[in-house]
Specification:
alpha+beta, Arc Repressor Mutant, subunit A, Beta-Lactamase, 8 strands, DNA-binding, transcription regulation, DNA-binding transcription factor activity
Length: 256
């Protein structure tokens, strides 16, 4: 998660601690102290002091035999409590499940947070091929379908300010890094009512997304993701139709 430059942090220890937690969250296996220090480019003494404190409060677990670190079980309750604060999850859940059953592809529900979209709900595809995305992970706005669906709802001045402060990285050969081309894409998104990510964020993955609004305010974003080889034109049109129907259903529930 990005720390907004306009906000002056109170000290740097909490920021360092968050960087360590973010790093551990990305790892499938426990890692040793030296690996953490090297990856974060931080001194061993600093990292060790922070890790000891995080272990003390249960946010990090240290294996005595291997002396390796991983996220602690105490974080689970915080994650569950945070999910409950997003009422959109419970409101949208039935429609997301129905969409997942109708299409058979991966469904994501996301929320905007500091220039990124965070996954707050995921329903896996019915096939054996499972996308690597996880709840809690986040994606950039400019190269993801949910991100572009969000940007398309913003005033042009807001979008231009965003493009001026972020670095447009060429994540794949399909990523739009030209600001003019991206603005044109967002105008098309606004006109169509849905956004497309054609391998712009991840190779071989095609995504379609739309926003969920309540009284004109974006409450969340829903996407359907599929391997490119399964995305025929017929299936694409079916997804768009069902996605827009799910959007209407969820927005109606939010209104009521």
């Amino acid at each position: 998660m990005k720390i907004m430059s306009e906000t002056k942090p109170y000290g740097t220890v909490l920021i360092r601690a968050k960087q360590i937690l973010d790093y551990l969250e990305q790892k499938d296996q426990p890692v040793n102290l030296q690996t953490i220090c090297t990856s974060l480019k931080t001194s061993k003494s600093t990292v060790l002091k922070i890790l000891n404190t995080l272990c003390l409060i249960g946010f990090v677990k240290r294996e005595e035999e291997t002396k390796k670190y991983s996220l602690g079980i105490s974080l689970i309750s915080y994650g569950e409590a945070a999910k409950k604060s997003f009422s959109i999850i419970s409101v949208a859940e039935r429609d997301l499940i129905e969409l997942n059953n109708q299409i058979g592809e991966t469904i994501h529900l996301g929320a905007y947070d500091q220039d990124r979209i965070v996954y707050i709900k995921k329903l896996n595809a019915k096939s054996r091929i499972i996308l690597r995305s996880q709840v809690g992970h986040s994606v950039e706005l400019y190269c993801s379908a949910m991100g572009k669906a969000y940007l398309a709802e913003q005033k042009e001045e807001v979008v231009r300010n965003y493009l001026d402060r972020v670095r447009l990285e060429q994540r794949t050969k399909h990523t739009l890094c030209d600001k003019i081309a991206l603005m044109d894409d967002l105008r098309a998104t606004r006109q169509h009512g849905y956004a497309i990510d054609d391998q712009e964020n991840e190779e071989d993955v095609y995504c379609i997304a739309t926003s969920i609004k309540q009284n004109g305010v974006i409450r969340g974003l829903v996407s359907v993701s599929s391997p490119v080889y399964r995305m025929s034109e017929e299936k694409r049109m079916k997804i768009i139709t069902l996605l827009q129907q799910a959007k209407r259903n969820i927005e109606q529930k939010l209104t009521n």
